Amino acid sequence: MKNSIKRFKESYLFYSFKRDKTAMASFVILVIFLLLSLAAPLISPYNPYDAKTTDLMNAEIPPAFMAEGTSEFLLGTDNMGRDLLSTMFYGLRISVLIGLGAVFLQATIGIMVGLTAGYMGGKVDAVLMRIADIQFSFPYLMVAIFISAIFQLMFGIGSFEQLSVPLLVVIIGLAEWPVYARTIRASVMGEKNKEYVEAARVIGLSRPVIMFRHVLPNTLTSVMVISTIQVANAVMSEAALSFLGLGMPVTMPSLGSLIKSGFEYIFSGVWWITIFPGIFLILFVLVINLLGDWLRDVLNPKLYKG
Amino acid sequence: MSHLLEVQDLKVKFALRFGDLTAIDGISFTLDKGERLGIVGESGAGKSVTGFAIINLLSKPGFIAEGKVLFNGKDISTLPGREMRRLRGNRISMIFQDPMMTLNPVFTIGTQMVETLKAHRNITTREAEKIALEKLRKVHIPSPEKRLDQYPHEFSGGMRQRIIIAISLLNDPAIIIADEPTTALDVTIQAEIMDLLQELCQEEEMGLILITHDLGVVSQVTEKIAVMYAGKIIETGDTQTVVNSPSHPYTQGLIKSLPGALKTGERLYQIPGMMPNLTAIPPGCAFNPRCHLKEEICVKDLPLLKRTEKGIMAACHMI
Amino acid sequence: MPYDIEDMKNNTPILTIKNVVKHFDISGGLLDQLKFKNGRIVREKTTVKAVNDVSLTINKGETLSVVGESGCGKSTLARVVMGLYPPNAGEIYYKEDRIDQLTHKEMLPFRKKMQMIFQDPYASLNPRKTVKQTLEEPLRFHNPKMTRAAIHDKIMSVMKQVGVDPAWSSRYPHEFSGGQRQRISIARALILDPDLIVADEPVSALDVSIQAQILNLLMDAGRDRGLTYLFITHDLSVVEHISTRVAVMYLGTLCELAKTEDLFATPAHPYTRALLSAIPRVGETRPKNIKLKGEVPTPVNLPTGCVFHGRCVYADARCKNEVPKLLKLDTGTFVACHAVEEKRNMD
N or C: where does chain B have the smaller number of CB atoms within 10 Å of the terminal CB? Predict the structure, then answer.
């Protein structure tokens, strides 16, 4: 353990991280975001999910710095009388949860498919990659509308609200796995012709062992790079779905559904319900993308030196 | 009478994160008209960097820290980019190991040759094509008229390297620097390319700097040799004298370790250890940890190139 | 096989390659195969004829080198022998057992006996595994009952034998130089105590002084362990130094097979002669190669008759039409050439 920490400190990754101010700043902001989402129940002044603490009389109170604002609600309240700051923390929590969950699902399916297709080649490859192409040619919005419509018909709206987080994870996860499958396949095809794979075959190792223990670890840098971008994409997808009313219900708002709920009031001068979660979302996605770009540059094998 | 090319005390450094790294540490040599110089050494000795430094094509973070590169008596190491570009590919050409690095796969050979000519000279396309044909003929490419319209992938490796040589000849350069021009090629093709280079130098009075790790090739093609080790020239002089009776223990070891001189199955002579990393060059003579003649002075003092009784220069305290 | 009948009496073959053919289909999917010809659409496959009807035996304890230029099929032959590619036709025997049609599981006992060393010391070691992990894997896999201590001891002793400091066993490949990596690669091949080692250009990527070290290591290991080598290389001076017999290949075909001294002293096949003349030797003052005419044909469209006829100055009509058979000369050399058979004047 000590050894690997030392190795990391001497690595090129850490070195270029220390030199890149954008990456450092993005990383710090990202960590703050993640801590906020993790600690949302502890740091939020109110619990937006607890109907007892909200009062419809408090609805649409402007932020504290405005003349009509009160110091009780720092960023004001939403149309249901919930403290906006607390709701945003909880919303961020949900967005992060769905983002990570969806990426985990995408990565699992994508890695399995890409690894199998790339290593086996031939017909297996052709079939798997055509499935990926077909999957990719369905707009995820259409898939989402379909699935949520079927779901609501089957189980009713009540249970939809309870199960919306796993449902969104599945929808976004299923929609985007071909991104992983393609990337992994490409790098597996590069790796599988290297002599260390032949060496493993000469030893007599079985195909799954070679695939998972030899080839897969050598494709993980590309997984790391796309994962960052995919988390940002998944968060954005979730926000888009919620904005269209296909995502998180208003009782359990994510950042996207908060923006949507505020959007109806924006022309009556109640801008804060939309703007604050919007800034939050943009900042979150931006820092992930900046980190992803940095990571891609650093891990690019052509630029990588020692 | 000044030399065609004179490298004086050239030092090349690389600015890295832990400080400057000296890749070439004060080398000097000369090249005259029609002369063929071989620079030999193992990987990491600095031979390729030398080639790039001469034409000032060091990629970042490399830079020329000290010394001069005189071409016809004029220092070209400090020339501004535009003037250097005019010189490169015009008066001094360079050939690389991988022909596909120099050839653009999406243009025909003809287009690439004509473009190169027009970049340096004010001539019409037709005139340029004529010159291109003449050069292709010079490198013995069969039916050059047809070849002009072909793409690089339609040629074999040997043919591609010939085309590269033809391109480098386009502007009748005074010097060709060939960096491992045949390492990627088969022996029979290598022999043909080397034959061609030698022929061109004799006919056109071109100077050739041949950078290679292959002592056999150097022996066949060049008149003068410079053996490099850890960024320094450790032995230089007439090629045949050096390869037949080397003075420096490293050159001796290198030649003795070649298979072919001994009986089948006999243990080869081996130089122990390996070339030091440029970050950790030992004090004194850089070769001392691997040298069987090592004495106290080798660890303390840096040996300088001295003329030996055979008429060549070697940098060793024990001579 | 027409040859080696007498030799077989004196030597026990450890590996026999009989009429092996390996072609690769590079035509891609169905759509790529469709071509428009003479007003019709036809399906056409493009195959690389890498190895065509090659037969060889390797005797116990010898070093048989296969030489030839790039694209001659020597590396493919090595991989067919190792079971990395299944042959399209022909048979491969390890001692008396036929091994080219075995299942993965049936092949395992032979895997222990036959190991391989690769060309590129940077690609042949998994960059994400330490030296110890790399060396441990074959041992664990083939000897599941081996104790931890025994494995450790074995790794240490093999590392010592190949000249890599055992204290470095927890390092990753990128921390080693090319020569040291090649030593580790050799250690991986030796750790299962094989009888036969197929070495595919093991020193081509190394510097001269390191090359000598690795060749010495291979020769020492061969002597100490009684190894048999199938040595694949394009470097004829290396071949001359280490091999007992030499097989020369051109475009997937065996041209000449001879004892090393005989091959270098009196090469029979015109291609062998050209190849030998092209070796640059220290002390020579200009290239002395025999000039070949024409271009190397691609293994996709093999020439008819003798594959070398288009480049050979002694070729005639027979060479264009008839594939030459391997012929045994008085010296014991086998050569596939009509000109040699007819005793045409070749000086």
Answer: N
Beta carbons of C124 and A217 less than 8 Å apart? no
Range of the domain at C264: 260-347
Whether A178 is covered by a domain: the verdict is: yes
Strand-strand pairing, C13-25 and B313-314: unpaired
In a domain, residue C315? The reply is yes
DSSP class of A224: H
Between B48 and A151, residue with greater pLDDT: B48
User: Which CA distances in Å does C231 have to A7, C120, C200, C243?
Assistant: 39, 15, 6, 8
CB contact under 8 A, B191 and C280: yes
User: Which pLDDT score is estimated for B144?
Assistant: 87
Reported pTM: 0.85
Residues C198 and C269 in one domain: no
Distance from CA of B85 to the nearest CA of C (A): 33
Q: Report how many domains make up chain C.
A: 2
User: C108 in contact with A at a CB cutoff of 8 Å?
Assistant: yes
- Looking at the fold, whether C85 and C220 belong to one and the same domain comes out as yes
Q: Report how far residue B3's alpha carbon sits from residue A249's, in angstroms, rounded to the nearest whole number.
A: 84
Q: Are C207 and C319 part of one and the same domain?
A: no
- pLDDT cut 90: percent of chain A above it: 25
Question: Which residue segment(s) compose the domain that A117 sits in?
Answer: 92-300
Question: Are C129 and C175 contained in the same domain?
Answer: yes
**Which of B141, B188, B234, B287 to mutate to probe the C interface, most C CBs <10 Å?**
B188
Mean pLDDT of A19-28: 88
Residue C223 and residue C320 in one domain: no
- Asked if C270 contacts C306 with a C-beta cutoff of 8 angstroms, the reply is no
Give the pLDDT confidence score for residue A300 in this predicted structure. Answer: 65
For chain C, which ranges sit under pLDDT 50?
A: 1-9
Put simply, the chain C residues between 21 and 40 with a CB less than 8 A from any chain B CB are none
Question: At A256, which CATH number?
Answer: 1.10.3720.10
CB C78 within 8 A of CB C116: yes
Give A193-231 pLDDT, tens digit per residue.
899 999 999 999 999 999 999 999 998 888 888 898 899
Residue C255 covered by a domain: no
Contacts of C208 in chain B (CB under 8 A): 42, 213, 215, 254, 257-258
CA distance B238 to B175: 19
Last residue within a domain, chosen from C224, C250, C276? C250
Please say if the pLDDT value at position A303 is more than 60: no
Residue among A3, A126, A195 whose CB faces C123 most closely: A195
10-residue averages of pLDDT along chain B (319 residues): 88 86 92 94 89 88 91 89 85 85 88 89 91 89 87 85 90 92 84 88 91 91 94 94 93 88 80 86 91 91 90 90
- Tens digit of each residue's pLDDT (9 = 90 or more) over B228-272: 999 999 999 999 999 999 999 999 999 988 887 677 778 888 888
How many domains is chain A built from? 1
Asked if the Cβ–Cβ distance from C118 to A200 is below 8 Å, we say no
Give me C118's structure tokens. 């690769």
Give the CATH number of the domain where residue C106 resides. 3.40.50.300
Chain B contact for C8, CB < 8 A? no
Q: Alpha-carbon distance A154 to C274, whole Å?
A: 80
| Chains with at least 3 CB pairs less than 8 angstroms from chain A | C
Interface membership of A123 toward C (CB under 8 Å): no
Q: CA of C121: which chain A residue's CA is closest?
A: A195
Instruction: Looking at the structure, tell me whether residues C47 and C124 fall in a common domain.
Output: yes
Does position A184 have pLDDT exceeding 90, yes or no? yes
How close C98 gets to chain A, by Cα (Å)? 17
- Per-residue pLDDT tens digits for A74-123: 777 777 777 888 888 888 888 899 999 999 999 999 999 999 999 998 88
